[in-house]
């Protein structure tokens, strides 16, 4: 049984929905026979809340991952063994959870196996045991597997339009506006691949109401699977229209034509080429508009997932948590641009570390905010390197033509349970069985002292 309690601040708004997002992933990656979950939200006199990267999914995954780790500890089993034995098998996907989510595709066991192998968990366990015998600050190994929902809500879509302009230029218009996710690069790459053009040859419009008729927006890790798919589908439709016109000009069957570097030709007939500008000119003469637009709505949202392993060292005298190793294995479906995805993952992983180790809103007894600037509200920065190894496996999403799943929020969801489990693994021999985020030196130190006092009293 699970109960999620959300404090949403003084003015219920979008923040009141966030605890309900935890329900979508409350079952984690596990084939659980019985699950009952509910959500309760409370209005308080604190600042109102809203969605933040991850938006409810971290809380849902933290709950199930802590439960699995504690179960493994009480049985004296390695946590990866318990997870492997209870994962939803690939053959059971798509899988409807007890809270209504339809997990789409994946190989959860393979992701965890790769993460454990990459992290060299057995070697770290040997070092952990050595330190316990000779003394020194303890090491902890933590696993955080997770699943998230990406795409917004079922039934939501995104607008896309592609046209072949009269001068032969391919023009892309998208309702999905970038907030740093490199939409111009990736959307141009998608359309360019359809016409065998370089992305630099594509004209791109977004965020301009004079050019783009409709827009839903960028949120919920939905941009590529919805906005990108809309561009792929409309670009493909325009190519089919252009192929018919080119077939007439080349006096050939449309099925015999191929496109290379933006030029149509008859397969097996060297020299029979016709440019996109010539096709566009002929289409204009025939009164044929070489354009297609769509509000693309897939059958289902997607469920990216991953397996993270964190290795930490906890300084007993100061409470400092030092990250020694972090392995992130993600399955975000088919990757169109690896560099962009890697950047998304790095950013969200850094934010996940902020959640786990630094960030906290604090008030005094009179309700005055104490963490109102970045001197008192601590966040990770680019000057704080972390020992990250990122790996991916690919399970195409069946709900969209690109096979893409969301990628932008994975680290926020996978890092916190992995780090928390690692810290508790390190401190379990000292009587620490629970600790709240963030795992600041002061909080960790005080938790260690409390456990020592309680142990002494017993």
State mean pLDDT (0 to 100 scale): 93
Content-based structural category = alpha+beta
What does the overall shape look like?
elongated
**Residue runs with pLDDT of under 50 for 5 or more positions:** none
Instruction: Tally the beta strands.
Output: 15
Written overview of the protein:
It is a single chain. Helices cover 36% and strands 18% of the residues. The protein is built from eleven helices and 15 strands. It has helices spanning 18-24, 57-75, 79-86, 108-119, 121-134, 183-195, 223-250, 276-286, 338-357, 410-427, 441-457, and strands at 2-7, 37-42, 95-96, 102-103, 139-147, 158-164, 170-174, 203-206, 257-260, 263-266, 273-275, 291-296, 305-314, 321-331, 388-392. β13 and β14 (321-331) form a beta hairpin. The model has no long low-confidence stretch (mean pLDDT 93).
Summarize the structure.
By secondary structure, the chain is of the alpha+beta class. The protein has helices at residues 18-24, 57-75, 79-86, 108-119, 121-134, 183-195, 223-250, 276-286, 338-357, 410-427, 441-457, and strands at residues 2-7, 37-42, 95-96, 102-103, 139-147, 158-164, 170-174, 203-206, 257-260, 263-266, 273-275, 291-296, 305-314, 321-331, 388-392.
Descriptors for this entry?
alpha+beta
């Amino acid at each position: 049984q699970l109960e999620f309690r959300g404090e949403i601040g003084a003015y219920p708004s979008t923040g009141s929905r966030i605890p309900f997002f935890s329900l979508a992933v409350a079952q984690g990656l596990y084939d659980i026979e019985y699950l009952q979950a509910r959500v309760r939200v409370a209005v308080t006199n604190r600042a109102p809340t809203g969605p933040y990267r991850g938006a409810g999914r971290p809380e849902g995954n933290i709950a199930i991952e802590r439960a699995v780790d504690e179960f493994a500890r009480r049985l004296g089993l390695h946590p990866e063994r318990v997870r492997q034995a209870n994962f939803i098998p690939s053959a059971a996907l798509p899988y409807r959870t007890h809270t209504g989510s339809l997990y789409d595709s994946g190989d959860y066991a393979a992701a965890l196996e790769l993460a454990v192998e990459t992290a060299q968990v057995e070697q770290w366990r040997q070092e952990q045991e050595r330190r316990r015998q000779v003394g020194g600050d303890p090491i902890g190994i933590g696993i955080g597997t997770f699943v998230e929902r990406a795409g917004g809500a079922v039934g939501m879509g995104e607008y896309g339009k592609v046209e072949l302009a009269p001068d032969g230029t391919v023009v892309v218009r998208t309702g999905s506006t970038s907030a740093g996710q490199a939409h111009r690069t990736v959307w141009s790459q998608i359309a360019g691949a359809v016409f065998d053009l370089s992305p630099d040859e594509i004209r791109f419009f977004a965020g301009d109401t004079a050019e783009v008729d409709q827009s839903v927006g960028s949120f919920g890790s939905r941009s590529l699977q919805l906005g990108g798919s809309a561009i792929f589908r409309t670009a493909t439709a325009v190519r089919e229209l252009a192929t018919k016109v080119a077939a007439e000009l080349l006096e050939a069957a449309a099925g015999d034509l191929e496109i290379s570097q933006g030029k149509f030709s008859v397969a097996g007939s060297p020299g029979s080429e016709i440019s996109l500008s010539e096709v566009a000119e002929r289409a204009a003469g025939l009164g044929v508009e070489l354009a297609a637009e769509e509000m693309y709505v897939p059958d289902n949202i997607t469920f990216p997932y991953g397996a993270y392993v964190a290795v930490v060292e906890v300084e007993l005298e100061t409470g400092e948590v030092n990250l020694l190793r972090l392995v992130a294995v993600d399955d975000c479906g088919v990757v169109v641009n690896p560099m962009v995805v890697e950047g998304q993952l790095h950013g969200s992983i850094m934010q996940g570390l902020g959640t786990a180790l630094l960030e906290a809103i604090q008030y005094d007894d009179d309700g005055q905010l104490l963490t109102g600037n970045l001197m008192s509200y601590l966040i990770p920065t680019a000057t704080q390197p972390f020992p990250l190894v990122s790996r991916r496996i690919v399970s195409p999403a069946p709900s969209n033509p690109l096979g893409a799943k969301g990628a932008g929020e994975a680290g926020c969801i996978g890092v916190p349970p992995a780090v928390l489990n690692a810290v508790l693994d390190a401190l379990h021999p000292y009587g620490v069985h629970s600790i709240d985020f963030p795992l600041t030196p002061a909080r960790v130190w005080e938790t260690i002292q409390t456990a020592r006092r309680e142990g002494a009293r017993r």
